[in-house]
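Worked example

This section walks through a single chain of length 176. The input is the sequence exactly as stored; nothing has been trimmed or padded.
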Amino acid sequence: MFSKFTFRCVLLLFLIASTACMEDLTPSNDPIQGEQNRQGLQGTVLEDIALIDNNLNKWQLSQALSEADAVAFYFTMWCPVCDSHMQHIKNHLAEDYPNVTFVFVDYVSSSQAMSRETQIASGYQSSQVLADIDSELQNNLSASMSSFAIIDKNFVVRYNQVFQSDTGIRDVLDSF
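Given that input, the structure is written out below as tokens.
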């Protein structure tokens, strides 16, 4: 069957893989300060942002807001925790709020190609994904792993917190 060495190697790889998603690859110096910065942005006006989506199309916030009542961003590292959040967003929030555009933001991949490969490998080919290579969106929203932000038609940040449950999110989405 398995030798002790093989078992130890498999166990070590499992432990490394299962803990990797708990590591924020772009941490703030102070997690409490980071959350306060995110929440402090609520009510502020975001500038129009233009990025390239993973289908190599130009994506612009103003265009997305002209077609929906709001845009909701979820910042992903493609880890198991993010995947469970993304599945919930895709299968529940997006279905319950068709008037809102939901966008997943890959803020860890170093290239558009890498982001697209990860998107497909993770099963999100049909989802809207932006690779925030230059961290423009991440910096504007003080985002980190699992950050969730909602922007209304007037570019006002209506919600900006780490995703924990959808209760507060639904309260904001119900207003659209």
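What to look for: The mean pLDDT is 85.
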